[in-house]
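Folding follows sequence. Below is one example:
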Amino acid sequence: MNQQTQQLITLVIATVGLLISLYLLYINIKNRRTQVSAYRLTRALHRSSRIVLKYINTEQLDGRFLVKLVLFNPGSIASVIHSFAVFKPTKNPNLFFRIFKPTVLRRLEDAHWWPTQDENQKDARYLDDEYQNLYVADYRVILVSIPGLVGWERYGFEIRTNNDYQIHETPIDGIKGSHRFSHYYEEWHTEK
């Protein structure tokens, strides 16, 4: 084989490779609309199936107060509650960071929580009694017993399930029978 034949074969192979690349690029551009639509559909489905934790009311008891929360699971996949934590804002111990963030959330170790179907259950329950209520198909009432008196402070409630987690910060000011439906709702989504 001589030099010209080798150059011709190399040129033909390069041209075929270029044509295949251009065809694949064309297919990719044509599929972009389908890929974007699939991404938007998946994103909307994920956003609409996230768990929602709502504060209902607070009831003052002897030496402690009882917070009633409701966990909603709008998705088609049931959730299992793994953990729940209560946080209270405290003064930032770092003097330098106190300028930028005056308060930090500190976890309350003496707060007890339990999921229940009986909303009038005011005594703390144990895992042995209420383990079946960790499974949330549509909604579950969560009662939290916190020592002290009801104040106007904001508390943070963190819940973790097998599908999602959420941190809900709210003031504990709705004494039983006085908390109304909110007039304003806004939902923000950020793209990653």
